[in-house]
Amino acid sequence: MMRISILPFLFIFIFTGIQDPNQEVVMFWKEISRTVAEGDFEGYAKTYHKDAVLVNGISGNSYPIASALAGWKQGFADTKSGKIKASVEFKFSKRLHSELTAHDTGIFMYTSQVDGGKSNTSYIHFEGLLTKTSGQWKMIMEYQVSVATEEEWNSIE
User: Fold this and answer.
1) Which 8-state DSSP code applies to residue 1?
2) Total Cβ atoms within 10 A of residue 47
3) pLDDT, one tens digit for every residue, the chain (157 residues)
4) Cα separation of 144 and 133, whole Å?
5) What is the pTM of this model?
6) At a CB cut-off of 8 Å and minimum separation 6, what does 64 contact?
């Protein structure tokens, strides 16, 4: 009877650069944080699928991400030039991931400060639906569900 050891297969899996999809999604959200903090509009826009949709439960609207990006572009330019300091952080309350899709639910905290003035922080309940296309994670739907509180933010580990 032939015996097959799984150890060589584990070694190959671990050390050939095959990444856990969850880790890739973690890196996706870190990239969004980086682009916001640096005012990297092009990098930020690349995190979205070309047909992505923004659903805004706060305003009761839904529109193509291209429309949202057009409205956000000046803020990125102001951040890049130093007029604004901006950051976004994410906390997740539910994560459903597979090899090619991910659905993350949580709260994001967006903070901005104009020319050294008082900083403004917003907490937003959100859902992000991602798909892996041509080896890259892209957001296909961003749903900004509702305004959250700092207490809700602090309650998520």
Assistant:
1) -
2) 20
3) 444 444 443 333 333 344 456 899 999 999 999 999 999 999 999 999 999 999 999 999 999 999 999 999 999 999 999 999 999 999 999 999 999 999 999 999 999 999 878 999 999 999 999 999 999 999 999 999 999 999 999 999 8
4) 23
5) 0.84
6) 51, 52, 53, 54
